[in-house]
Design goal:
The chain is α/β, with parallel strands linked by helices. Helix content is 44%, strand content 11%. It has 16 helices and nine strands. Strands 2-5-8-1-9 form a five-stranded parallel β-sheet, sandwiched between helices. Strand 6 and strand 7 form a beta hairpin. The radius of gyration is 24 Å and the shape is elongated.
């Protein structure tokens, strides 16, 4: 989600939505993009004194002082930042009461947070799992509540490039992982309803289930073997047996043209017969388009061809991926391919001024 447009100075924001859809990730991306110091507090594993302050007697003055935790004082050292209260409704009522003053008055113990600290919280709906408390009315009214759900099309378009900022994971090759993210995104393009399928509470199963977080895990598992069938147990462990069977069957029978040959001879190839296959092919073309300037121009040629062949939505999605994939990597590339026929579509989609 685009968190920036929801942040209003002086107004604490609560993101309310199902687990695994990227609430925490959106806060991390926001802080990183702004260069802000971020303190993440899981309220359920904190004591009320972590927010109300540790009482310490001041014998000289005959009063009680309430000392703040180090996390609060670090904002002063870092010139403000973001206080992120994650899983806030897993905190018991006593801790929620201690948060009242933090959220409204921005005070932790006897310490006042700097004015430029943004307060953001995240919570899952009360019916999404056990071990949650309803938020105290006095606490929830201290927030602007933003109901969050998955923007499937945004996720499909952004996941292959990880929204332009993939994490560096030791032991995971980014080039390989990018291709596997593209494969997962192509499946969700084929079955958008499977982006998020929370379990029914009465099912009693201990299986995992499909959500953006667990599909991300699937993409990481796919990097360890080229044969998807060999990874069924790992995939099942991420998204459950039913979703795993469908994904593995789909991926095994994808049967795409070689993307490099398609890039080099786009006029001699026919498009695949299904939209999900076209999407998978275009995404693979985008990934190869990052290799060098020649491939980059070939990728633009294929995308323009898709637009001219009456596949505007898929062309725009691929163009968006190519524009945002890795700006540093492509900043020196000179485009020699005309995108005049594509430009109106990109402008309509907000990708060009």
């Amino acid at each position: 989600m685009n968190l920036e447009r929801h942040i209003v100075p002086g107004v604490p924001t609560l993101l309310m939505g199902p687990p695994g859809i990227g609430k925490t990730a959106s806060v991390y991306r926001y802080a990183k993009s702004k260069g802000l110091h971020l303190e993440t507090i899981i309220a359920s594993i904190r004591d009320s004194t972590d927010f109300s302050g540790m009482p310490v007697p001041d014998l000289e003055n005959g009063v009680m002082r309430y000392l703040p935790q180090d996390w609060a004082k670090r904002f002063q050292d870092n010139g403000g930042g973001v206080l992120f209260l994650d899983e806030i409704n897993t905190a018991p009522p006593t801790v929620q009461h201690a948060l009242l003053r933090v959220v409204l008055e921005r005070v932790v113990g006897d310490y006042k947070l700097p004015d430029n600290v943004a307060i953001i919280a995240a919570a899952n709906p009360i019916d999404s799992a056990t071990f949650r408390w309803r938020l105290d009315p006095a606490l929830i009214t201290r927030f602007k509540v933003i109901k969050v759900n998955v923007d499937t099309q945004d996720w499909i378009a952004g996941f292959p490039t990880y929204w332009g900022d993939p994490p560096s994971i030791p032991g995971l090759d980014e080039n390989t992982w990018r291709g596997k993210r593209a494969l997962v995104a192509a499946f969700i393009h084929h079955r958008p309803d499977m982006i998020l399928q929370p379990p029914k509470e009465e099912s009693g199963d201990d299986e995992n289930w499909p959500c953006p977080r667990t599909w991300d895990y699937v993409s990481r598992c796919l990097t360890i073997h080229d044969r998807v069938q060999e990874l069924f147990d790992d995939i099942e462990g991420c998204i459950g047996s039913a979703a795993a069977r469908e994904f593995v069957t789909w991926a095994t029978n994808l049967d795409l043209p070689d993307p490099v040959e398609f890039m080099e001879h786009p006029q001699s190839y026919r498009w695949p017969d299904r939209g999900d296959k076209v999407y998978a092919l275009l995404t693979a073309v985008v990934l190869h388009g990052l290799e060098n300037e020649a491939r980059w121009n070939q990728a633009w040629s294929v995308i323009v061809k898709a637009a001219e062949d009456n596949m505007p939505d898929l062309a725009v999605m691929a163009a968006r991926q190519l524009l945002t994939a890795d700006p540093k990597r492509t900043s020196g590339f000179k485009r020699t391919v005309s995108i005049a026929s594509l430009a109106p579509l990109l402008r309509a989609a907000g990708e060009l001024p």
